[in-house]
Structures are given as C-alpha cells and as structure tokens.
C-alpha cells in the first residue's frame, strides 16, 4: 500500500522526492498509532477486561454484569490508546497503561482507580509483582519503573505516586514484562532481540542491579513472554515469541535456549494467503494452566496454534491448530485464567484509518483443553459459539461495544495492526541517499565552503 | 619577483611588498582580475574527502596568486608561472637550491603544487632530495609526492597509500573520523546473536584457529570500551601476552585503523600482538552479545565522550543502568578502570560507581600495585594529548563485588 503511494508521487512531476519521503514517514507515524485490542482475564475468572483504544471495558462474570469504572480523576479513564493491561496473580489488582503516559492501578473488588502514576514516556508494558506490592511499567525508551503500593483496602483516597527507575535496556522499546512464578525474577524483553532476567530485589525502589542472565537467541524483536510452571523448578520455564516467527523456550537461571519452535513455517502451510516474504510475527502467547499447552497467536493465522511443552525433555512441539471458521478472526491478544479452563481471544484495533468504524473488537473463547491430570476425559479444543461463552450476550455486548460487526473490517484491522507492529519494532534499513536525506535537519555538521 | 620569493611570501618567511594590491584576505587571491589562471581551488579548500573531518590540519600558508601583476618587471618571461614544463622545473630547482625543503611542507600542499606546476622529473628530483633529510615526516610526505609520478605508480600500484611503507603501519590521516558518534543511532553492523556465536578464529587466528570451538577455556578477558586508535590495547598486549583482549569502537574508520595497526604489528613482531583485536560495535547496546556472565577480568573506559548537556547525559557510557550490564560481564573481583580529563564527568563516573551496590573502590595500595593504572593516562592518544597540554586527569578504579543484600 505504501509502495504504490510512493510510485504515484514519483510519477507526479510536481512532487519532489523530498515530499514523497516526508509523506511516507508521516504515513508510518500514523500507522504506528493503530493500537491492537487487548484482553486480560482475572486469575479465577471473576472478570474479563478488554481494552480497545482508550476505552477500557470490564465485565464481571460473578455478578454477570458490566462494570463501571470509578476514577476520581474524572472523565474518561485514559485519554489515549491503552497499550498494556494485566491482572495481578493474586487477583486483587489490575493495571492499565498506554500512550497517554498514565499508569492506572485498579482494585478488582470495587473497580476504583487506587493509584495513577505519571510516566515520562509512553508506556509499552506493565507487570504486577506476585505479592501485589509493586507495579512495574516499561516505557518506550527502555527504562523499567517501579511503584510500590502498600496494601489497599479500597477506601483510601487514591495516591498519585512517583515511580523509581528499576532497570534499563539501553534505548530499546520494551515489548513485554513478566514476573517469574516464584516472584524472584523479573523478565523484560526488548526490540533489540534481547531478553533480560533480573533478580527482583527486596527493596526494588533502589533499583534491580543484579542481572541473572540474558536469554539471547531471537533473530528479530521479541514480542511476548509467558511462563510455564513446572513442578520441579519453582521459577518455571520462560517461553517467548518474536518477530522471527519462532517460539523459544528458556531456562532463566542460566539463560540457555532449551528449544526453538519454527512456528511461521507451519502457518504458511495452512494459510494460503500468507504469501509475503516477511516473517510472521508472534502476536501473543499464553500458557494454559494445568495442560502444559501454550497458545500462540500469529499474524495472518485465523485461529491459534497450540504447542505442547514436554517438560522432561524440555522441548516444544506443535500439537494442533485451532482454526476459527466462519469469521475472519485473527487474534490480537490472548488471555487465560488459572482455574477457568478457557482461552479467551480478542481481535480488533483502534484508530483505524480509511474506515468508517474507528475502533472495533470481537471476543471469542476456546474451551476443551486436555488437563494433564489422569482420568480426565479426552477433549478436543473447540471454539465456543457466542451463546456458550460465560456471560453470554451481555458480556459480548459490553466488551465488543456491539453484537455484530462487519467482517471486512476485521481483516483491515488485522492488517493495520500488523503494519503498526512492524513499523514500530523492526529496524528500518535505509539506503545511503535516504540516510543523508534524513540527516538534513541536523545542526551539528560542519558547514563546508 | 621570482617564484621563490613568491613562495617565501606564501610561507610567511619574508615580507615582500607585492606591487599593486597587498591582499588582506585570501579571498582576494581567488578572484583574479587579470584573467590569468589562479590557483587550483583545492589548495585552500579541504577536498571532498576531507569534508567533515574535524582533525584536518588547517594550512597556515596563504595561497599563492600567480596573477601577472604580482610579478616584478625583473621576472624573466620564462619564470612566468603557468602550467608548462619549464616553469615546473624552475620551481623545483628553486625549492632545492634554497633548501626550503628543510621546512615541514604539508603533504597536501606539496601534492597540489606538484600536480599543478611540477612535471614528473621535477617531482622525482624533489623526492630524491627529500630523502636525504632526516625528518621522517618530510620523507613520508615526499613519498606521497613520488607516488604521483605515473611510472612510479605502476611499480607501486599494489602499495596501499594508507599504509606507511617503512613501518607497515597505517597512517592516521587516512583514518580520521568525527570525534563524536551518536550511540543512539541504529547503525548496521553485524552483531553476534549470543556470546557463543563470537568468531574467535576471526579475531585471533594464530591462537585459536578453529572456527567452531567446543572448548571453553581461553576467552576474552580484557575489554577496552571505546578504544579509539588502539593505544591502550597495544600496550596491554605486550604486558599481558597470555590474555585475550578486545577493543570495541563505534566509528568504522577508526576501527579500520586499529585493525590495520594490529595486523601491521603482528607482521612486524612475529608472535606478538596475536592476543589483541578490535570489533566495530555499539558497546552500550551489545555487550551481553559478546561476553558471557562473569567473563571479563578488566574493563577500560578511557576518556569517554562527556556529553555535557543535561539532556545528553543518557548517552554517557558510564551510567547507573549500564553499570548493571558491566557488572554482569565482569567477574567478581574484576576491575573497571575509568579516566577522563573532564572534571564533571570524572565526578559523575565516580558517583555512579560508588552508589552502585556491585562495585567498591580500590584502595590506594592496590592502585599503586596495579601496573595497568599507570597506562591509563599514558598509553592512549587522548591521554598523551592531555599530558602534552598539562591537563589534569580524574580516574576511578573500582572492583566488582557480590552485593551484600
């Protein structure tokens, strides 16, 4: 799409090459503003949250009703696209943050915003410590900040805290932040192909200085992280997906790469229209508890791919592809709960250009995962139809904004999200002339006579 | 006035009044009102290749004008300098006869003069004369002159002009680069995916010739971050002949220079310098790609870029966050050496190191006992420049420790 525009400009005599390049960069910027829809599920499936653009929508599954968020700051809770949402593992806290440089911490009991933290730069990833005492968020410049939250019971006035820097990846967008299951380590992944495992200290406000290991092996940006719990290792195994179409498994204590799964190649076999030469990015990764299964959402794949993690041999292998028939549904985000046994998926985007609908989202769920406990009946994962989803129509109405959405828009949304991610995270290779052109606004070059 | 006197005026040795205008600015020389050919503009302007180089020496000599009205009536017609063979010879003879060639003539000036005014025989003559003089620089410069002669060029077309013929070492002036490089820009040089992908056989061919090494000993132990022109590496290589060391530098021309220098030294002193190498990389981003946890024994940060502006402090190579990474690659007990001539930066680096829980300062006794400490201020170009200018240096040497909590 972009290439044809540039060709047009070159044929047009009145446009100089400069204009074409300026236009292209503006277009890139606008493409980057497209924000994918995100989903997160409460650990015990009490509620489901979906974020589309600046809109945060929560549905309470216990009371079977939509949730109204209470935010003392008044007005819409977020002013700009939300880029990351997460529930804390103890289920009491929920955090949302994004392009408006605000990190909001919510209590999941009364859905009141208990703390708003101001960040200097746009936030790209968040994580809550397992004990619920600290919230970490990462900005686009590579710095991970930490904020401490003393136990809240929801009745105090919201605090606006100041964050302290915890650690930093030098000048690199941090794409994902996760705590290990035992809470000892915090793992951060960035756009420079690196995953850093740092010891999470007892006093995080003084900084996390001790690096445990670096997990190096991805050949493109790392896009998502997830942990698999293992009975014999308290820190679990780290699974990461990247822009190189691979899912890799790591031992975080030593930083060794345990196994790599070439997922992109399998997708090309399935999807006939995935014909681009570009690598298909792993959009999101989610572990399904009790099953040793990992659900992987990949660009262009209409459905999810399930990988099995064989713990004794520490290998990953593709077991199944769950396709979503009847709809053009390419998931942009996955979520699961510890006890619910369902995998939740959402697709959608906001700030779409060239479309009447500026934001949209569609939620689906998959059930029927084989539990690894013996005696459980063999099941096939199946995509639930709308009526079978817990919460049913009410949930869908709240989280999607409307019941039915035009199919064509979904493909456009999926494409837009794909372009946005590529433009943001893949380093651009410039030709020499273009590089010189980009330097034209520099003011420190010696003037030649 | 003959050509010689013209030259003398140019060099500022004699004050001769040129009949007509006495020029106040060099620019008056360029625009010749007589219509005669003036000097080739390359004489006073840096050439295209030199543009952007901050370290090109500025010529002290003013350009010559060979406009007709600058000559006195005693000039014989054949002294009129135009681009003919005869005049070229005349200049050459004058130069030789008055021993002006004693003075240090900048090579670029010589080359341009010769290109414009000297013929091949004259150039060879000057070259021969220069060889007799003691000054190495004059010889070098004359050598360049000689290479312009086509017949000589044919014989030497394999010789690399950037390498000094007599010593086999690269000439710095061909490797000049801007002193400042932006560490934030994503330059496109290859980066190893992980420390096990670092090709040791490329860097240390004699010591570790196998490309895929399965043995785990003999790893790089010293790293000079921002090694510049390689002064410290060269000194350390002979001081610690058993240790593998590497320099990391962001600027590619400078890396080329260090590479050539090491190669030249390896040839000149067989068996030595096989343990030193250089790599072009952004050490602020990619150190974990090169070194495993606890691999390094020593890390050097000599005269890093101060980045004075507050907003540029994040580009400083020693910063609280980057120290985490340096602590990761350093062994417990490993030492980090920093030195600078900028007081504010020295204070900054010291305070960063002191407030980091994984570093402790070395005691005075330990500093005295360490042979490397003396090299910090004397081994590198930058250090020697500071010493020449009588500046003060601020060093901070710390040891990596296990954090107490």
From TrEMBL, chain A:
<feature type="compositionally biased region" description="Basic and acidic residues">
    <location>
        <begin position="1"/>
        <end position="13"/>
    </location>
</feature>
<dbReference type="InterPro" id="IPR028884">
    <property type="entry name" value="Trm82"/>
</dbReference>
<dbReference type="InterPro" id="IPR036322">
    <property type="entry name" value="WD40_repeat_dom_sf"/>
</dbReference>
<dbReference type="InterPro" id="IPR015943">
    <property type="entry name" value="WD40/YVTN_repeat-like_dom_sf"/>
</dbReference>
<keyword id="KW-0853">WD repeat</keyword>
<feature type="repeat" description="WD">
    <location>
        <begin position="215"/>
        <end position="260"/>
    </location>
</feature>
<keyword id="KW-0677">Repeat</keyword>
<dbReference type="Pfam" id="PF00400">
    <property type="entry name" value="WD40"/>
</dbReference>
<keyword id="KW-0539">Nucleus</keyword>
<dbReference type="InterPro" id="IPR001680">
    <property type="entry name" value="WD40_rpt"/>
</dbReference>
<protein>
    <recommendedName>
        <fullName>tRNA (guanine-N(7)-)-methyltransferase non-catalytic subunit</fullName>
    </recommendedName>
</protein>
<dbReference type="InterPro" id="IPR019775">
    <property type="entry name" value="WD40_repeat_CS"/>
</dbReference>
<feature type="region of interest" description="Disordered">
    <location>
        <begin position="1"/>
        <end position="29"/>
    </location>
</feature>
<comment type="similarity">
    <text>Belongs to the WD repeat TRM82 family.</text>
</comment>
<feature type="repeat" description="WD">
    <location>
        <begin position="75"/>
        <end position="116"/>
    </location>
</feature>
<comment type="pathway">
    <text>tRNA modification; N(7)-methylguanine-tRNA biosynthesis.</text>
</comment>
<keyword id="KW-0819">tRNA processing</keyword>
<comment type="function">
    <text>Required for the formation of N(7)-methylguanine at position 46 (m7G46) in tRNA. In the complex, it is required to stabilize and induce conformational changes of the catalytic subunit.</text>
</comment>
<comment type="subunit">
    <text>Forms a heterodimer with the catalytic subunit.</text>
</comment>
TrEMBL record, chain B:
<dbReference type="InterPro" id="IPR003358">
    <property type="entry name" value="tRNA_(Gua-N-7)_MeTrfase_Trmb"/>
</dbReference>
<keyword id="KW-0489">Methyltransferase</keyword>
<feature type="binding site">
    <location>
        <begin position="249"/>
        <end position="250"/>
    </location>
    <ligand>
        <name>S-adenosyl-L-methionine</name>
    </ligand>
</feature>
<feature type="binding site">
    <location>
        <begin position="282"/>
        <end position="283"/>
    </location>
    <ligand>
        <name>S-adenosyl-L-methionine</name>
    </ligand>
</feature>
<protein>
    <recommendedName>
        <fullName>tRNA (guanine-N(7)-)-methyltransferase</fullName>
        <ecNumber>2.1.1.33</ecNumber>
    </recommendedName>
</protein>
<feature type="binding site">
    <location>
        <begin position="380"/>
        <end position="382"/>
    </location>
    <ligand>
        <name>S-adenosyl-L-methionine</name>
    </ligand>
</feature>
<comment type="function">
    <text>Catalyzes the formation of N(7)-methylguanine at position 46 (m7G46) in tRNA.</text>
</comment>
<keyword id="KW-0539">Nucleus</keyword>
<dbReference type="InterPro" id="IPR029063">
    <property type="entry name" value="SAM-dependent_MTases_sf"/>
</dbReference>
<keyword id="KW-0820">tRNA-binding</keyword>
<comment type="pathway">
    <text>tRNA modification; N(7)-methylguanine-tRNA biosynthesis.</text>
</comment>
<dbReference type="InterPro" id="IPR025763">
    <property type="entry name" value="Trm8_euk"/>
</dbReference>
<comment type="similarity">
    <text>Belongs to the class I-like SAM-binding methyltransferase superfamily. TrmB family.</text>
</comment>
<dbReference type="Pfam" id="PF02390">
    <property type="entry name" value="Methyltransf_4"/>
</dbReference>
<feature type="binding site">
    <location>
        <position position="226"/>
    </location>
    <ligand>
        <name>S-adenosyl-L-methionine</name>
    </ligand>
</feature>
<keyword id="KW-0694">RNA-binding</keyword>
<keyword id="KW-0808">Transferase</keyword>
<keyword id="KW-0949">S-adenosyl-L-methionine</keyword>
<feature type="binding site">
    <location>
        <position position="302"/>
    </location>
    <ligand>
        <name>S-adenosyl-L-methionine</name>
    </ligand>
</feature>
<feature type="active site">
    <location>
        <position position="305"/>
    </location>
</feature>
<keyword id="KW-0819">tRNA processing</keyword>
């Amino acid at each position: 799409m972009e290439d044809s525009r540039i060709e047009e400009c070159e044929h047009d005599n009145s446009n100089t090459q400069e204009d074409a390049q300026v236009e292209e960069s503006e277009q890139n910027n606008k493409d980057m503003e497209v924000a994918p829809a995100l989903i997160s599920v409460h650990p015990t499936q009490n509620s489901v949250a979906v974020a589309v653009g600046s809109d945060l929508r929560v549905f309470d599954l216990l009371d079977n009703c939509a949730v109204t968020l209470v935010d003392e700051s008044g007005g819409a809770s977020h002013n700009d696209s939300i880029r990351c949402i997460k529930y804390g593992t103890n289920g009491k806290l929920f955090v949302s943050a994004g392009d408006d440089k605000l990190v909001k911490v919510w209590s999941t009991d009364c859905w009141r915003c208990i703390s708003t933290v101001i960040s200097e730069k746009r936030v790209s990833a968040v994580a809550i410590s397992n004990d619920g005492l600290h919230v970490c968020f990462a900005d686009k410049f590579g710095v991970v900040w930490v904020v401490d939250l003393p136990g809240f019971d929801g009745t105090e006035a919201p605090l606006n805290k100041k964050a302290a820097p915890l650690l930093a990846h030098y000048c690199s967008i941090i794409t994902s932040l996760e705590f290990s299951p035992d809470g000892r380590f915090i793992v951060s992944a960035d756009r420079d192909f690196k995953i850093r495992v740092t010891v999470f200290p007892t006093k995080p406000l003084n900084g996390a200085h001790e690096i445990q290991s670096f997990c190096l092996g991805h050949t493109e940006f790392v896009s998502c992280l997830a942990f698999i719990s293992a009975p014999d290792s308290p820190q679990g195994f780290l699974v990461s997906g990247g822009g190189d179409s691979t899912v890799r498994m790591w031992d975080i204590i030593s930083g060794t790469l345990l196994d790599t799964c070439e997922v992109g190649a399998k997708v090309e076999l399935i999807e006939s229209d995935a014909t681009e030469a570009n690598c298909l990015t792993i959009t999101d990764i989610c572990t399904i508890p009790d099953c040793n299964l990992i659900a992987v959402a990949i660009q262009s794949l209409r459905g999810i791919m399930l990988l099995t993690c064989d713990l004794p041999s520490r290998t990953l292998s593709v077991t199944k592809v769950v396709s979503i028939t009847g709809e053009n549904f390419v998931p942009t985000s996955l979520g699961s709960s510890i006890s619910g046994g369902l995998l939740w998926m959402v697709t959608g985007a906001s700030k779409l250009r060239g479309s009447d609908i500026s934001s949209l989202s569609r939620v689906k769920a998959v059930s029927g995962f084989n539990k690894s406990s013996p005696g459980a009946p063999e099941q096939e994962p199946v995509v639930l139809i709308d009526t079978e989803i817990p919460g049913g129509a009410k949930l869908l109405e709240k989280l999607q904004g409307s019941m039915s959405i035009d199919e064509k828009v979904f493909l456009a949304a999926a494409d837009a999200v794909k372009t946005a991610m590529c433009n943001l995270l893949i380093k651009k290779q410039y030709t020499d002339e273009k590089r010189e052109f980009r330097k034209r606004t520099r003011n420190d070059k010696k003037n030649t006579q | 006035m003959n050509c010689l006197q013209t030259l003398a005026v140019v060099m500022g040795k004699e004050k001769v009044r040129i009949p007509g205008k006495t020029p106040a600015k060099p620019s008056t020389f360029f625009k010749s009102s007589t219509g005669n050919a003036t000097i080739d503009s390359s004489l006073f302007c840096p050439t295209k290749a030199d543009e952007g180089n901050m370290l090109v020496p500025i010529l002290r000599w003013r350009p010559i004008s060979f406009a007709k009205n600058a000559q006195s009536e005693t000039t014989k017609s054949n002294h009129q300098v135009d681009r003919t063979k005869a005049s070229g010879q005349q200049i050459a003879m004058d130069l030789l006869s008055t021993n002006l060639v004693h003075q240090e003539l900048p090579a670029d000036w010589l080359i341009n003069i010769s290109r414009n005014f000297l013929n091949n025989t004259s150039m060879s003559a000057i070259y021969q004369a220069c060889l007799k003089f003691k000054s190495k620089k004059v010889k070098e410069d004359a050598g360049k002159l000689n290479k312009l002669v086509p017949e000589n060029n044919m014989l030497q077309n394999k010789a690399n002009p950037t390498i000094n013929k007599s010593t086999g070492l690269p000439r710095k002036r061909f490797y000049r680069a801007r002193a400042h490089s932006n560490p934030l820009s994503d330059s496109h040089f290859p980066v190893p995916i992980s420390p096990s992908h670092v090709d040791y056989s490329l860097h240390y061919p004699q010591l570790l010739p196998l490309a895929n090494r399965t043995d785990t000993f003999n790893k790089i132990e010293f790293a000079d971050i921002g090694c510049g022109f390689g002064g410290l590496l060269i000194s350390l290589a002979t001081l610690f002949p058993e240790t593998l060391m590497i320099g990391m530098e962001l600027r590619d021309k400078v890396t080329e220079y260090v590479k050539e220098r090491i190669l030249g030294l390896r040839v000149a002193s067989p068996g030595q310098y096989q343990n030193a190498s250089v790599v072009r990389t952004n050490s602020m981003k990619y150190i974990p790609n090169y070194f495993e946890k606890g691999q390094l024994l020593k890390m050097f940060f000599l005269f890093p870029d101060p980045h004075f502006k507050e907003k540029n402090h994040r580009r400083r190579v020693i910063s609280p966050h980057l120290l985490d990474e340096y602590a990761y690659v350093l062994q417990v007990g490993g030492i980090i050496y920093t030195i600078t001539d900028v007081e504010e930066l020295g204070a900054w680096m010291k305070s960063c190191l002191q407030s980091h829980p994984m570093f402790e300062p070395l005691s005075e006794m330990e500093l005295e006992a360490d042979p490397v400490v003396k090299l910090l201020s004397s081994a590198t170009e930058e250090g020697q420049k500071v010493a020449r200018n009588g500046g003060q240096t601020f060093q901070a040497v710390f040891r990596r420790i296990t954090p107490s909590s």
